[in-house]
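User: Fold this one for me? It's Thioredoxin.
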Amino acid sequence: MITLESDQQMKELQNNEPVIFLFSADWCPDCRVIEPFLPELEEKYAAWKFVYVDRDQFIHICAENDVFGIPSFLAFKDGEEVGRFVSKDRKTKEQIEDFINKLDQ
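Assistant: Here's what I get for Thioredoxin.
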């Protein structure tokens, strides 16, 4: 998983490839719960590029996209948002897989 480094990089990723942004933070206990299985999800869903977005570093991007809880996911394809799994609730591996599976329907 790559880490978002700039607003410009986010725009480029959104417009050029299928991408799932994971909004997270180091201090978030629910975010730590999903970390162990993220590499497995990246491998299983290799058609998508996964990008870590530090909520504290990019709070303006969170606000612009109505992401007020973490961990949260936004998916983009061809410059358009195609899915969102945004809430303050803890997420299970199964819930995240369900979200990703629905993106291609």
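One thing worth pointing out: The longest strand covers residues 19-24.
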